[in-house]
Amino acid sequence: MKKTVKNCLFGLLCLNLATIITGCNDNDDLLEEDKPTAIGLAYTQAANRNLDTVYNDLVNALSGNSAIGIVAEVNHQQNAANAGLELNPTRVVLFGNPALGTPLMQANQQAGLDLPQNILLYQNVRGDVYATFNTVQYLASRHGVDTVSTLPKISTALTNLTETATGSSIQMPENETVALNEGVISIESVNSFADSYSKLRASIEANSNLKLVAELDHQQNAQSVGMALRPTKLIVFGNPNLGTPLMKAEQTIGIDLPQKMLVYEDKDGKVYIAYNDPQYLAERHGISGETETLVKISTALSKLATEAAQ
């Protein structure tokens, strides 16, 4: 009898140990799955630092660099709360260095759609804090500017900023490249550059569901560092009621939100309005099941661009 009891206890111990080991493996898998997987998105996971500390360190570093200008700071969580919605801590800061970014737009003005640079910080449901940014290879392949000499400097700056703020090393995505013009919708305008932009801005301001976040005159910024650039302006705006559900599905899409529209005049004097296809953004970040929201966003963006172009 004693031997039987002993064997039973040993069996239970083994069973519990196996359960623990299996559980650990499951957690490891979950950890792997929780890591950012979007195409062209580099990331670091903060080493024993909370999101506020990481964000403040990042903003202080940006503010302390005279060559960099902060364009906007967006607290997606706060914007969601203002709309009566819930979202885990998610913040993005938009910033730029015209001396580094202008050469990309000189090669292709459309690159201004992904400029200024963005760094997204978020805390997931597990409490893990991540900092993410678009790799220069992603931007180069999307806009065909892979030969621009400032790309390595931009990459180094983004890496240093995020590694310093998080205290951990950059992890590069498995896939960094996309097709030329991937996910970019462009509409030619019959109006002048100034009129196209004014009409677009007026439509955004007239829509009570939209919030104007920032405006950026890429041409003016280029001139501030002694560089030439054809008329190119970016307008940033958002609707938390539509953007929040996408971020709840996958927080990394916060790097592509708020929405952006680029208005520019090319070398032939033609004016274009370019913006990101919401369906492409959803696919990039692995979002599914948000068809109704994506249709609403697509319809709204198409209407804004079309009205400004007519």
UniProtKB/TrEMBL annotation:
Residues 1-23 form the signal peptide. Residues 74-134, 216-278 form the DUF302 domain. Gene3D superfamilies: TT1751-like domain. It comes from the Bacteria. Keywords: Signal. Pfam families: DUF302 (PF03625). InterPro entries: DUF302 (IPR005180), TT1751-like_sf (IPR035923). This is DUF302 domain-containing protein. It comes from Pontibacter aquaedesilientis. The lineage of its organism: Bacteria, Pseudomonadati, Bacteroidota, Cytophagia, Cytophagales.
